[in-house]
Amino acid sequence: MGIENTKDCHVLVIGSGGAGIRAAVEAETFGETIIVSKTITGKGGCTVMAEGGFNAVLNEEDSIQTHFEDTMRGGAFLNDELLVQTLASEAPNRIRDLFSWGAVFDLKEDNTIAQRPFGGQRCARTCYAGDHTGHELVMTLLEKLRGSTVEIENEVTVLDLLSDDGKVNGAITCDREGELGVITADAVILATGGAGQVYDTTTNSTAGTGDGYALGYRAGAQLIDMEQVQFHPTGAVTPYDSRGRLITEAVRGEGGFLKNALGERFMTKYDPARMELSTRDVVARAIATEVLEGRGTEHGGVWLDVSHLPREHIEIRLPIMLNQFLQFGVDIRNEPMEVAPTAHHFMGGIKITPEAQTTVSHLYAAGEVTGGVHGGNRLGGNALADTQVFGKRAGIAAGKTERTERRLDMDQIRAAENKLASYYEGTAKSADIRRAMKTTMWNNVGIYRNELDLKVAEREIKKLQNTRLLIASPRELSDAVITENMLLVAQLVIEGALLRRESRGAHTRTDIKQSWTNETSPFGHTFFVKGKSGIEILEDRL
Amino acid sequence: MKVTISRFDPDTGEPPKFVEYDVSVKKAARVLNVLDAVRDTIDPGFAYRHCCRGGQCGSCAVRVNGEPVLACMQEAREGDVIEPLELPRIRDLVTDIAPVMAQIAWMNSGCDCTQVTQQEIEEIKPLRECIECYSCISSCPAISVSDYKGPTIMRQEQRLNLDPRDKGDRILEAIDKGLFSCTTCHKCVEVCPKEIETPRKAIEKLRAEAAKRGLSLPAHKALAALIEKTGRSVERKEPTFLERVADVIEPEGEVRATVGFFVGCMFNGRVIQPALDAMEVLRKNGIRVIVPKDQICCGSPLIRTGLSGFLPELQKRNIDAFVKAGVDTVLTICAGCGSTLKNDYDTPFRVVDITEYLCELGFKIPEKVEGTYTYHDPCHLLRGQGISEQPRILLDSVAEKFVEMPARCCGAGGGVKSGLPEQAAAIGAIRAEMVKETGADYIVTVCPFCEFHLHQVTGLPVKNIATLMLEGYRKQEK
User: Fold this and answer.
1) Which residues on B lie below 8 Å from A238 (Cβ)?
2) CA dist B287 to B259, B275, B351, Å?
3) Where are the alpha helices (DSSP H) in A299-408?
4) Disulfide: which of A72, A382, B118, B127 matches A107 by Cβ 3.0-4.6 Å?
């Protein structure tokens, strides 16, 4: 083995967003824990960018049952009920954890936690820190992490998981300079977030490449519902390079209006009861329809307007939005924002039990990398809650994993080394492959889907997968592996979209007429495990 | 678009080099998009950090044309020169931030789960938005010459200090990390993408708590005692400015305006001539000057060092003095006093710096004075009052040759010169090098502390801008 750089621990956490750090500080109480992040810990992932909030039932007008129902309904009843039950009942205690660790969330005058209304929810349930809630959450977690004994490995990319006799027992890593390493562990937690970056237009950070889906898949874990990709209704439209940047749902939560180019509040046509605060899938489709039917702006968006709100309200509640738009010459106190849908959240992912156990022994997962919590559509404010509830659970379950004797599968390591060596003889640059993939996914696997487009995408992604990637220096190694991960994710999204012959949640098939509702659908999860994929048929509903 | 990027490969053993790139980018592209274009179309091995693309993660801070910015937020311009932050360098634009991160304090929360109140949350918030981009660390003049750990480190100490859930002794910790090394130059605020006011909201507050516990530097305690005893931060050694001038100084010719004059301790008692020169300049520009004799120290040294117990008394006496004089505009010639009156007082009158006022009112053009001059921006004028253009307008009118010099703290402020003179000298030595590079014969400035200190560290003559203007007027009259 050419790898000299080895480390060992009890629990290895991969990913340093909200779920990863939460898992690490929990796992630490059971034994030596290492957290690896391909970015600087806390800076990667999408938690730090989350603006809106954290859903938790905290007062008597609300109830765990209502949170459960809202989440199920919002998720088109594709959610795993046990996971949703867990999310709703534990979110309150997870926000209390954050408060005891120093969180600086907004409070009301009576010093209780402030909450605001978010789309698809019957109560004001979303706790927040201005419009930088995710940043606040990560800062709190970092203050906790830095005071812990968790070993932090920054800018280390995991190339593959290692296993022994069907049990995951470590990972092959690659540092900034391209030097390979091995970290062995009794248990591994995947907390690598989503994969918005497989699309041309996305809210995700450049780290949102879905590595965990690929790592889990290659290690034999089952994934579900990969076709369920949430398009956030309100992404920036201009300038070109800022396309897709998130305009927080809090803008609508605070009273923003959506208008088409004719000045009409078009949500009256799509969801007159909930209007702008309808669920994200509904609002995204409404905007896409307005644009498709010729009532969009010249750049292919619609208007999101807060200029009727008091200026001070905008300044206090939406400071990041205000500043970001000012940077681009738009004063949202006086003029509307131009918005269009943008790839945002992967509801699908690695299948887990409520204990965050995947279908592979000694492998756990938490946060956006998992599937089942949010069904076919995630409610705003449920993702941050998800990271904390299941981050903690993954930390506990991994921490309790029996200690095992270390046995490295040398064949696996040699195979990885050989594969990496072959990149030097490839033909295509990562950047070019990624660009082609992003365009294909955006054009053919977007909000509205049909079999023809999906087949085109399937062929195109296959073609890209068959193109051998080229690198010139070891420092490009991780980039090449990540590109392959992204292509695998794209492939699974397309497979799922073809398998799910219905419109459900964020997945809309324009070529299929259906006679059932979300609640009476005969279909369950789509599923993907190495060499096999399919869709669950609920026999009793046929 | 053509840009120049500083490249560095540690494996070659060669020093960093500038490389020019010509890449194609879209309209309104950010610096990050230019870096992406270089990586994607020219050199896949080009190293730089990036992540959120929206100014929220702080990964992509670099220097563009010398100033720290977030690459994802800064609009790219033709000819931009892109360099890493001034931190130990790893490769290309990637710097070693681990040692800085290791200094950021974490919360030491007890298990009694102390409740936090809305008021406490609101106080912490302004210190909470840091995205750890380390632009402030890169540009702080005190860090390289002392053991000072830097602005965001102090920000975090005060953030924890304000939080009832934290059980640590953040005052002792802050002192240990160099609390008294900050010159309050406010460069960190200028470069902060979140505009966090670390000197005012963290450092001065921490120093105030240190003072309450008797932990101030001995020199600062002595200074505070002097101010409390005499109303002045400078001991009287000769007849002061206020003792030498009339209560009302009438201008030459027509009265164009009337101002009250706030002299400040340095000009009153230590470097008196420039203040007298300033009176002459005002006279020649038709400005009547009213000098209330009961004015005293503005309190700046007390605020900067945290020994502000006597401050309310000073504020009241100064405001009363000028209100009694019946002026609606008070003119300062000391950057520190001006900044203090503007930012730390709630005055019923307007406060203006002499350069600001002359440019606003229009000034008599003097004759050019021989020599090569450079201008040192006093931090408390540039960043404390946002004044940079006006002194240059005056200088251009009077200096035979004026050469620019990038702004940088000279080390005299924030109580550093009195409290930690060796550090002030070390910061000054760097500034002296910069002065030398300009080839100037004279330094011009608008702050008596800078004036005094720059002369010590450069050995060059340092002229107050009023003195130079007066030379021009005198030459004209000959």
Assistant:
1) 28
2) 7, 15, 15
3) 311-317, 319-327, 382-399
4) B118
> Amino acid letter at A329?
G
Looking at residue A542, its pLDDT comes to 72
How large is the angle between the packed helices A211-218 and A477-499, nearest 10 degrees? 80
Q: Is B110 on the interface with A (CB under 8 A)?
A: no
- How far apart CA A528 and CA A534 sit, in angstroms, is 7
pLDDT in tens, A45-55: 899 998 889 99
Residues B84, B134 within the same domain? no
| Interface predicted TM-score of the whole assembly (ipTM), two decimals | 0.93
CB pairs under 8 A between A and B: 136
Residues in chain A within 8 Å Cβ distance of B44: 429-431, 471-472, 476, 479
Number of domains in chain A: 3
Nearest to A458 by CA among A434, A494, A493, A483: A494
Share of chain A above pLDDT 70, in %: 100
Three-point CA angle B340, B342, B344, nearest 5°: 50
| Residues B72, A242: Cα–Cα separation, whole Å | 9
Overall domain count for chain B? 4
Yes or no, beta carbons of A48 and B165 under 8 Å apart: no
By residue count, chain B amounts to: 478
A361: exposed, middle or buried (Cβ count in 10 Å: 0-12, 13-18, 19+): middle
**Cβ proximity of B127 and B158 under 8 Å:** yes
- Mean predicted confidence (pLDDT) in B19-45: 96
CB pair distance less than 8 Å for A39 and B90: no
- Catalytic: A10? no
- For position A415, what pLDDT does the model report? 87
**Å between A366 CA and nearest CA of chain B:** 21
How deeply is A279 buried, as exposed, middle or buried, from its count of CB atoms within 10 A (0-12, 13-18, 19+)? buried
Q: Which two tokens stand for residue B59?
A: 């990964």
CA-nearest residue of chain A to B157?
A: A143
Rounded to the nearest angstrom, the minimum Cα separation between A110 and chain B is 8
What range does the domain containing B310 cover?
Answer: 241-360
Per-residue confidence (pLDDT) for residue B109, from 0 to 100 = 82
Per-residue pLDDT band at B111 (split at 50, 70, 90): low
**Domain span including residue A246:** 235-342
Give the Cα separation of B411 and B145 in Å (integer): 10
| Interface check B175 vs A, CB under 8 A | no
Instruction: Specify if A535 maps to a domain.
Output: no
Question: What 3-state class would DSSP assign to B224?
Answer: helix
Residue B57 touches partner A, C-beta closer than 8 Å: yes
Residues A128 and A154 in one domain: yes
Separation between Cα atoms, residue A143 and residue B456, nearest integer Å: 44
Q: What pLDDT score does B112 carry?
A: 59
Average pLDDT over residues A225-242: 94
Does B97 sit within 8 Å of A40, measured CB to CB?
Answer: yes
User: pLDDT, tens digit, for every residue of A73-131?
Assistant: 999 999 999 999 999 999 999 999 999 999 999 999 999 999 998 888 999 999 999 88
Nearest chain B residue to A48, by CA:
B57
Active-site residue, selected from the candidate residues A232, A285, A345, A378: A232
Inter-chain CB proximity A106 and B121 less than 8 Å: yes
Answer yes or no: A73 catalytic. no
Are residues A29 and A167 located together in one domain of the fold?
yes
Which chain A residues contact residue B108 at CB under 8 A? 147
Give B144 to chain A, closest Cα distance, Å.
24
